[in-house]
Amino acid sequence: MQAIVIHEFGGPDVLRLEDVPQPHPGEREVRVRVHATFVARTRDISTRTGRHPYSREMRLPHILGGEHAGTVDAVGEGVDSALIGARVAVSSHLPCGDCPPCRSGRDEGCRQARILGVHRNGAYAEYCVAPAANVHRFPDDVGFAQAAAMAANGAVGTAQLDAGAVGQGTWLAIPGASGALGRVLVGLAAGRGAHVLGLTRDAASAPLIEALGAHAVVDTNRADLADELIRLTAENGVDVVIDNVAVADLFARYMPALATTGRVVLSGALAFDPLPVDARSLYVNSQAIVGVRTGNRGKIERFWEAVSGGYRLPAEGIERFPLERVAAAHAALTNGGFSGPVVLDISSGPERG
Fold it and tell me: pLDDT grade, residue 351 (50/70/90)?
């Protein structure tokens, strides 16, 4: 089979298309004929350069690629053969299943957690092997590129919304609303009946964010950002901020708009500078800051239930590259060429969607 292999850390040029042996599923595993693979800005690119904390845990040569979508091609011992041919999306989180967090149903805190595409070969390839517990069927009207993009961000988005107790009538602000995760959050939150305020510096993305269900789109560059958020919420302030940007200046400018008992949910802070947290304000206003690293298997299940119930990420906003142009995809993400989801189209023919 063909796959993108890295033999050393470095720039996009280390991504090489090669012929490699086809993998075989082990016990409780499946092999997926990959149709689309999500390209993760932090995990894939940082790991490729050797700057990610997980890079030192990799064995080279290596195949990157976590969340993906395709059709089940083969199953290992202990897996129902009826799954062969199913259209599935595959998550990348690999908890151990035995530690206290795993046993309590909080496997996002697994102390021995591994990641598909980092600790084992991933899905920048025509075929990929993953645990059967990591695959989820999706509706026929969802394309493979959509499913891969949703698999990448649906579980963590669900975990973030749950951590913020976002529901009917919640005023929710989302910095980075035009990004891959931001777009998923807007749609999921709108589906819960929240009033979504999409924060972005990309004015061109405003129509898309509104189409996803945002109540309003706010320019993060405006000097009166907090005043505008307070105005939009009828002077009450925002109940929840889900911040995947974690920029110190932006954090300082939206925090005055956080309502009493409000919550800030933070993810992805490994890549960013420390934030200016006013502990006294948190205390006086009964506010909270919560970190969410990823979604556990319960959140993954809940997300795909939302998809079965009608949630969709529009295919029109997904940038797609063929496998042989993976270096261009990495370069475009690194240079800020795309803010939304980027996937690799890997298979060809009528099954690709």
Answer: very low
pLDDT over threshold 70, residue 221: yes
Residues 80 and 121 in one domain: yes
* Nearest residue to 20 via CA among 117, 118, 126, 130: 126
* The pairing of beta strand 135-137 with beta strand 127-131: unpaired
Same domain, residue pair 8 and 129: yes
Q: What is d(CA 104, CA 136) in angstroms, rounded to the nearest whole number?
A: 22
Domains identified in the chain, total number: 2
Residue 268: φ, ψ to 5°: 75, 20
Inside any domain, residue 272: yes
Q: Reduced to 3 states, what is the DSSP secondary structure of residue 220?
A: coil
The radius of gyration of the chain's CA atoms, rounded to the nearest angstrom, is 20
pLDDT, tens digit, 9 for 90 and up, residues 312-344:
999 888 999 999 999 999 998 888 767 789 999
Q: Which residue pairs, CB below 8 angstroms and at least 24 apart, start in 184-187? A: 184/149, 184/150, 184/153, 184/154, 184/157, 184/313, 185/153, 185/157, 185/160, 185/161, 185/242, 186/212, 186/213, 186/214, 187/212, 187/213, 187/311, 187/312, 187/313
User: Whole domain around residue 221: which residue ranges?
Assistant: 165-291
Q: Based on the domain organization, do 77 and 119 belong to the same domain?
A: yes
Q: For position 99, which CATH number holds? A: 3.90.180.10
Q: Assess if residue 27 is contained within a domain.
A: yes
Dmax of the chain from CA atoms? 61
Residue 297 lies in a domain: no
Write out pLDDT tens, residues 35-94. 999 999 888 998 999 988 888 888 999 999 999 999 999 999 999 999 999 999 999 999
Q: Are residues 8 and 116 both part of a single domain?
A: yes
pLDDT value of position 271: 55
Closest by Cα among 70, 71, 76 to 30: 76
| Confidence tier at 270 by pLDDT (50, 70, 90) | low
Residues 178 and 213 in one domain: yes
Pair (174, 286) in one structural domain: yes
